[in-house]
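User: Structure tokens for this complex, please. No commentary.
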Amino acid sequence: MSKTLKIVTIGGGSSYTPELIEGFILRKDELPIRELWLVDIEEGKEKLEIVGEMAKRMVKKAGLDWDIHLTLDRRAALKDADFVTTQFRVGLLDARIRDERLPLKYGMIGQETNGAGGMMKAFRTIPVILSIIEDMKELCPNAWLVNFTNPAGMITETAIKVGGWKKTVGLCNVPIGSFKSNHIVLGYPEDSDKLFHKYAGLNHFHWHKVWNECGDDVTEELIDRLYNPKSEWAGKVSEMKNIRKLPFNYEQVKELGVLPCGYHRYYYITEEMLRDELEDYKNHTTRAEVVKQTEKELFELYKDPALDYKPEQLTKRGGTHYSEAACELIASIYNDKRTVMVVSTQNNGTITDLPYDCIVEVSSVITGHGPEPFNWGSFKPCARGILQMMKSMEETVIKAGVNGDYDAALQAFTINPIVTSGETARTLLNEMLVANKDYLPQFETTIEKLIEEGVTYNPGDL
Amino acid sequence: MSKTLKIVTIGGGSSYTPELIEGFILRKDELPIRELWLVDIEEGKEKLEIVGEMAKRMVKKAGLDWDIHLTLDRRAALKDADFVTTQFRVGLLDARIRDERLPLKYGMIGQETNGAGGMMKAFRTIPVILSIIEDMKELCPNAWLVNFTNPAGMITETAIKVGGWKKTVGLCNVPIGSFKSNHIVLGYPEDSDKLFHKYAGLNHFHWHKVWNECGDDVTEELIDRLYNPKSEWAGKVSEMKNIRKLPFNYEQVKELGVLPCGYHRYYYITEEMLRDELEDYKNHTTRAEVVKQTEKELFELYKDPALDYKPEQLTKRGGTHYSEAACELIASIYNDKRTVMVVSTQNNGTITDLPYDCIVEVSSVITGHGPEPFNWGSFKPCARGILQMMKSMEETVIKAGVNGDYDAALQAFTINPIVTSGETARTLLNEMLVANKDYLPQFETTIEKLIEEGVTYNPGDL
Amino acid sequence: MSKTLKIVTIGGGSSYTPELIEGFILRKDELPIRELWLVDIEEGKEKLEIVGEMAKRMVKKAGLDWDIHLTLDRRAALKDADFVTTQFRVGLLDARIRDERLPLKYGMIGQETNGAGGMMKAFRTIPVILSIIEDMKELCPNAWLVNFTNPAGMITETAIKVGGWKKTVGLCNVPIGSFKSNHIVLGYPEDSDKLFHKYAGLNHFHWHKVWNECGDDVTEELIDRLYNPKSEWAGKVSEMKNIRKLPFNYEQVKELGVLPCGYHRYYYITEEMLRDELEDYKNHTTRAEVVKQTEKELFELYKDPALDYKPEQLTKRGGTHYSEAACELIASIYNDKRTVMVVSTQNNGTITDLPYDCIVEVSSVITGHGPEPFNWGSFKPCARGILQMMKSMEETVIKAGVNGDYDAALQAFTINPIVTSGETARTLLNEMLVANKDYLPQFETTIEKLIEEGVTYNPGDL
Amino acid sequence: MSKTLKIVTIGGGSSYTPELIEGFILRKDELPIRELWLVDIEEGKEKLEIVGEMAKRMVKKAGLDWDIHLTLDRRAALKDADFVTTQFRVGLLDARIRDERLPLKYGMIGQETNGAGGMMKAFRTIPVILSIIEDMKELCPNAWLVNFTNPAGMITETAIKVGGWKKTVGLCNVPIGSFKSNHIVLGYPEDSDKLFHKYAGLNHFHWHKVWNECGDDVTEELIDRLYNPKSEWAGKVSEMKNIRKLPFNYEQVKELGVLPCGYHRYYYITEEMLRDELEDYKNHTTRAEVVKQTEKELFELYKDPALDYKPEQLTKRGGTHYSEAACELIASIYNDKRTVMVVSTQNNGTITDLPYDCIVEVSSVITGHGPEPFNWGSFKPCARGILQMMKSMEETVIKAGVNGDYDAALQAFTINPIVTSGETARTLLNEMLVANKDYLPQFETTIEKLIEEGVTYNPGDL
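Assistant:
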């Protein structure tokens, strides 16, 4: 690998960028960074400049001589890159608002990663990630692609299986949260790493087991402490900022025998999650809307020419740890550090219940040649079946998203258990396609036909 | 195998019995029947006598000297049996009414085979089938067990995997319906068998492919004729008497690439099915209630000492072809006839997407040593995932039903996509357990605890 | 499918052709043959004319108006064909003599189907079968390819996986022999078909289980009758004309629990087989040499302008039943007859121990759309491992044969248990490559290099 | 886990014990050892005392207060043990001499781990390991069993699958050798650990891949350096003390694409290995005979009351690193150190080509709860098939060894590619059974029958 590094961040105008910069600064001794390129698109130009200037201030304050480039020219940025990170959001937060509010309009949870919203986000993102890879093949054929654009699992699967970019790693911040909270709940200091965690599943749909340093399996004890309504911890500790802390069904989780992730709430306590989201829908306080407000405030802060460090408020944003994970991943690959991380990577039999060539999210040792996952094996039936169903949904979404295949899109909506199958699902899909028409080149003909047939999307209705 | 046959029917007092008797009479040259035992329980005594007397009249009319035994003594019946067929319904039709109406009370489809109702029916049936097998081990260790008690797939899996009775075959009448309608839709005479059908999946959750006699795959054409809203056949032909003819989503079925079975409507067009069922709930015209009325009328007919043939009205009952299938299965085993039938049998890799040792419903050649399934292989992702999830639900139901495991029961409710996960699912499960307390010895302690905690079931509320 | 049939036989000058013609004549009511094309190459012209004239006499005698074409123009023959059968032998019998004698020269069994000889035969045949398929894609894109050129399994796998010709079926006569002998040994009339046979494995490396018409598994009884040295049948009944009747090791076969095929002798009693073959080597009575003599005699007979029927002597030739199998296969596909046959076809999970997409030889129902295999599942470890190893050898042979890959060829020799690994294996491979240089275009560069390095082949030494 | 440790070594009288003691002394800060029990049997009493006294001197010299117990009372030793290591050899080195020489007498490689010798060693060891486990269940139900008695893979599989002792880990010293030599060959310092090694396969039958710290896959380069006859390293570096350095076939290893282990020579260059071994047979210099002499000399050294450190000569013994591996494994489990080691452990899908529940030898992170293997996935066909065959042989050996099943034993001999199938294999098996009659209680009846039939073993003939 290169002696010095060129790192490129696509979607560099994101409010997360300061965390990323902070992460790189913290690892300045491990990462001989020469150039940092923050890339964005025309619509993101203003944000890019604000956050980019702040990044420069942070780097300067750290006494580092890194070249920070702010650009709209993706190809210039990619040229000879060593690492490319992706944190872009096609359609910006307004698209996320639609992803969440349109399903709620029809009484369904949107879920921007694996509900109807997430499927639509995949449709918007797939053409872009494939186009980035086309550029990378030409401009930086040896670079690593570190993806944390959601739905991270499906986008990583698209990059590897469709785009053929084997050196892609998908990242997620969810496991970091549960890793910390599990230590706390079992009485370890907050920054302890004594417990051995093993995660497996899909992005935003994984489970984990935990052992203590004596080799005892403490999974059951954790289930009891976290989810038994009689536990002193019940409802007090949460693994995630951006998901409601609604309690899981204790008996059901006990039967699982593995610890769920926060996103399992959408599937395991659908009723309660939907009820709360409908409340948010009414009050215009869906997660997307809250985040949009937070972001606005953050950018106001970032504008301050005196601000040269990551502000406290960013942690409220929800995606905290994402950038930390990205920086650690890059440092671990570059230095063959063999850190244990949870990443989206090729299955190759790690989870025997899933197709050999699909992408899974699993605990892995990060080496100089990428992730080496710990073998997981097979799940109990009760986790196995729903996992397999989610993977089949992902595969169908990718098929639809790559080919602009309406039949597959409707099929994916039908499979997804938080989308109610039937005519309303079709109505929702149609309206979402029309609402996203600017971002779905692959569905162009279909969308034209839908509009002809009278399908409309009226932002005012939302 | 024996030179002459002793056949035992458990649940002999069923309204279906005349169809069974007719089936045996039609195969009198293939089946050297010596004794036919119709077994029932105390509560079914009256029906047993009515239908048993009619059976005797039918046999007499056919000029046959078979011994027809009507008995409540199951062990006497099982002694030295060659074939045992099971068509009993624990809790009678009143239990089915609860299976269907209780979920609807909470806004969910009951579905007496793979919804909340079906899971409860499994819980009631599992202890009985295991007890029958205990008797068989002692009294007729070489007999074949032909199960058509629903949920036929789960009961067959219980019999084989838990009970260890390898010589069990599960039967379903659904495929016979689609076999006939596919011929009609493609312009063949109604009784033609020119098309080659291959079915695979689970009981009430299978798909099929069809080829014509020239070797052309006509599956896509059938999908188009049956489900394209522009087809002349749309909504005109139905594979099942007891399921609404609501149209499938054409594009979604096209994407499947295989023909669904009628029961897939509960999963593929859940919204419409639920809407209709809620209407029935209001009008007290759920399927169970309609069947109860039909049965009452049938038994009035059966009482007629002049009636010595299967009355026309029985076909209305819905389960038509079941008994025909049972008789043909028995004849095919006894005579090594090698008829092609769709049966629930051991997977052993027939469907590679499912556990090796589970029970699947697949097209099989019925030989003297039982079913030899045609290999199926793997499904496309969109059918694969939901199939795997249903199997995981079945396995969890069986675990719960065998051990009286409440955690597993709640888990099964959580997995099932037509049960909305969350607090109401728990409420429903609890109420159903209490409502079925007379039939769930394995859940005795749990139910007592629930009652103590104030869970009640008031038949009047239904 | 066509109303009338054009059938093409590549390698039409074979001594087997009369059996094929007889087979077609016997099925004249099932097969509306219009044209029969016998194709051969320049070197086979004389034989083609002799056997072709005889074929014409046979057809004429049968009073049929089929057009018999004798041609060296393969493309003219393939044009609009409905069925193409392949029975060619690249390099003629002299190549087979080398396949058998060269390994023996180095103290190893040649085995023209799955020993060193068979691997070399595959190398010679692969370029030809792929070239036939190229022509078929252009000239008869809907034709079925019925392959009985050995090694039939590997050639079928090449045709389907490399050539992409899905409508290929591989045939073998071995199962017909054991089917007949098993009936005889259990006391059935010679032409009985009462027993249900299920075969699975690879071409010339399959096992089978047998049930009688009462459903009893009689496999163990057959093992005892055939292979127990104390049995009255021991050594008396043989399934194959062309393999020595050396007795299997009774205890070892008992442990298998399935019936081996004749070719398993090369692997299960290697010592005795080798000893006998070395004797033949010394006496110039290897199978290939015997067959060459038989063929010479057969062609003398065929020249007789009075001969218009298949002569008795052909059955001595060893490959009897091959052509019968081919004709029955064609009739079964054309008429959707659903005959049960043992064919080489796509695995798709039929044998779960082997790769999903490989070719296996299994009992199948032959339908209008080709073979529908009975599911087999998994073997006991003792059969499973050696089967998996043979498949890996086949895959490596195909890789070597398609790409002219020397490393893979040496690897295949190393894997094969009847080739002793080490320097002599390399010497043998090198000499065989040089000896076959006229037939191995894909290995051209390698062979040139070997010759340069001093590797020679002197036919006189053989 | 306990605050202080009781460690038990079965076969404590082994010449390796000083290495083990040294290993514990080196880890005195990691392992709070309280008691060390060296257990042996009556025949090993003298050696136990010699080596035991020396162990005491070593511990004393290190200034440690560990209690060293020398005992023939296995049950007393096992009581409350924390770790049990097994390094016993049933029948002592004389049995190994028979394991190696008897096959050579019949012209076959003996191979004391996976040839005929290894199978016989498994038969002798299986009853003992199962009896140790029976004691452990009663006396130390929480102990870890660290097995390095050969054939380590089969014995570990027996312990886990048959004995049900999940906390068993099998050890091998082979990977340590190749780890070191690979570093040297690529120009790293001898004690470097920069390269990332990933091993997978079975004990004495595994392959590995290697990456450097830049993430480059250097496997191909290593194959070239080690096995290309033109390489400067060719034949100069060897991974093993006790296996001849005969060169692999370069092209064949290139095709493998993974690095073989030393024992693969028996399978990949059988001819040369056999030739050399036959030479040794003639000269009475088989490995077993050499080792016996070395051991004799070692014990002479050990008797010296002044010797209180591991003598240089022990490294010549061949099994070097074994004890080091054992000590490191124990330290890693006790301290949850997460060292990467190559161990025999449960597959659970790590190698997808092998049965889920079998034992494999794979690179693993050693945690407080035991090995967590890195996922491997699937091998290329050329490694896959022979691996699957070896596993099937192991399973058949275990079946034979557990049940004293002669049919299975003969089957295992038939499967093994370095045993020539046929009558001589049977003769060899019979003679080996008789020669080992004192150590094969499970085969008692069979052996009696063989003796009656005239099978003899005359030590003088050897």
